[in-house]
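I would like you to help me understand the sequence and structure tokens below and explain how sequence relates to structure.
___
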Amino acid sequence: MKLLPRIVFGIAAAFTLFHVASSSVAAFTGVAVLLAVALLCWLLRHRKQLLLALIATPVTAAVTGYLTAVGDTARGVTGDMIGGQAVFGYWALAGMALLGAWMLKEHPGRRGVTVLLADGVLIIASFVGALVPSVAVPIGFLGVLTVLALRGRGIAVLRRRLSACAAFLRRVGTHARTGD
């Protein structure tokens, strides 16, 4: 008896999705994408950081594309190649943030939060790009690199290498003054 409401709601949901999907090609595509995303979310329900990153990346791509289109419309430009290149650049940078967070074997923090921060930087860069389109993708690239370096122990490695280099230069300077 406890399964009866689930069965009834499941049949009603399946019928509704079938009815909506059979109305047009666009509706069918939307339902198929919705079902694929729902299946992906259900399969990744125990991997919350990956799920957060995979959901944040397409949202970022959509927002940056929208902001690029708004910037092009505000400037009175229609069908401009620069806007399309900027959107492609944002998508590439969002993918770079997603891959960069999972490339490190021992990531110090939560990888999904790293991707979310990098995507936030991309949205800010796309807002700047709506005003000044030529600097948007370079700002986004430097911002994503900075987030990945800060969240992925890049700064600690750089600091350690710089201190080792400084110690080496001190030793070389000491040996040069003493004549060794």
About this structure: The radius of gyration is 24 Å.
